[in-house]
């Protein structure tokens, strides 16, 4: 595995590469969920293609009071994991290389669909995500981009950005990887205390219950949403949002739930913010 600590050296390597380049962007603190994305990337790249992973903790997507300063930084362990999963190139730029003037003077603002749910809870978050991903797509020049489904709103917004900005890239969304008790894998799970970790799977159990209910009989979205909140908060989590919505526009469902709708949940457990989702069908 080749490791590039700046954009210029990566680009020199990229000029020598022909064929399929499959890209997995990350913020590091890698876990088995990331490993599954890299494994998928390796399968897609094939014997003649290349797998590129980036590690960059993007300051633009963290708001005031969020965990940028304490976000886990585990580069040595991350390198071992990536090397063991047949990664060809790891790009680890620093902030001055990504943002030479200290911050991005020009940013991509994704519009109204990014101002609800995660966007409402974390103002400016998706502008930071879109800006850094667009920069990496220009730097890495991949043929394929792999994202995880856990960040549901994020991958939908990025798909729209790729389409509307005419990036010639194939986007692949991989299923959410989960712990044995159903908790969605996340780098932030390591913040949880032992007791918090015991309670965290209530989000997954609630999603499973809600989907079964919605599949079993016609249900009013408002009533099911309230039941979801009650189940999560009974486990002493604070619900940031729980909504049943259209998976393309994120408009909340009014009335009966459709088979293509999605349930999105964000909850606070101690100091840790957890998100998860599940589609009705």
Question: How are the SSEs ordered, and which strands pair?
Answer:
Blueprint: E1 2-4, H1 7-14, E2 21-26, H2 32-45, E3 50-55, H3 75-84, E4 89-91, H4 95-98, H5 118-121, H6 125-140, E5 144-148, H7 152-164, E6 170-174, H8 194-199, H9 202-216, H10 221-234, E7 238-245, E8 262-269, E9 272-279
Provide an overview of this structure.
- The chain is α/β, with parallel strands linked by helices and 281 residues long.
- Helices cover 37% and strands 19% of the residues.
- It is built from 10 helices and 9 strands.
- It is globular, with a radius of gyration of 19 Å.
H/E topology pattern: EHEHEHEHHHEHEHHHEEE
CATH fold-level topology of the largest domain: Rossmann fold
Q: What are the low-pLDDT stretches, counting only 5+ consecutive residues below 50?
A: none
* Assigned CATH class of the largest domain: Alpha Beta
Radius of gyration: 19 Å
What percent of residues are in strands? 15-25%
Architecture of the largest domain, according to CATH?
Answer: 3-Layer(aba) Sandwich
Number of domains in the coordinates?
Answer: 2
Give me the CATH superfamily of the largest domain: HUPs
- Overall mean confidence score, pLDDT: 96
The main pleated sheet reads as: 6 strands, parallel
Helical content band? 25-40%
Number of strands: 9
Order of strands across the main sheet: 1-4-3-2-5-6
Number of helices: 10
Terminal-residue CA separation: 40 Å
Which structural class do the helices and strands define? alpha/beta
Label the overall shape: globular
């Amino acid at each position: 595995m080749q490791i590039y600590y700046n954009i210029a050296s990566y680009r020199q390597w990229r000029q020598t590469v022909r064929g399929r380049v499959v890209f997995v962007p990350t913020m590091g603190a890698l876990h088995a969920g990331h490993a599954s994305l890299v494994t998928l990337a390796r399968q897609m790249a094939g014997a003649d293609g290349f797998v590129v992973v980036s590690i960059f903790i993007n300051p633009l997507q963290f708001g005031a009071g969020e965990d940028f300063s304490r976000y886990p930084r585990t580069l040595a362990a991350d390198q071992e994991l990536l090397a063991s999963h047949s990664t060809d190139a790891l790009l680890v730029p620093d902030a001055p290389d990504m943002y030479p003037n200290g911050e991005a003077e020009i940013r991509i603002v994704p519009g109204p669909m990014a101002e609800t749910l995660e966007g409402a809870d974390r103002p400016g978050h998706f502008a930071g995500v879109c800006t850094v991903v667009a920069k990496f797509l220009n730097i890495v020049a991949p043929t394929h981009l792999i994202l995880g489904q856990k960040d549901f709103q994020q991958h939908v917004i990025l798909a729209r950005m790729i389409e509307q900005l005419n990036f010639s890239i194939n986007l692949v969304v991989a299923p959410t990887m989960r712990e044995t008790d159903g908790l969605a894998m996340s780098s932030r799970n390591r913040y949880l205390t032992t007791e918090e970790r015991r309670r965290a799977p209530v989000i997954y159990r609630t999603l499973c219950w809600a989907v079964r209910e919605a599949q079993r009989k016609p249900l009013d979205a408002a009533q099911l949403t309230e039941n979801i909140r009650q189940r999560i908060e009974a486990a002493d989590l604070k619900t940031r949002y729980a909504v049943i919505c259209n998976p393309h526009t994120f408009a909340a469902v009014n009335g009966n739930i459709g088979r293509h709708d999605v349930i999105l949940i964000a909850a606070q457990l101690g100091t840790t913010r957890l998100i998860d989702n599940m589609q009705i069908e």
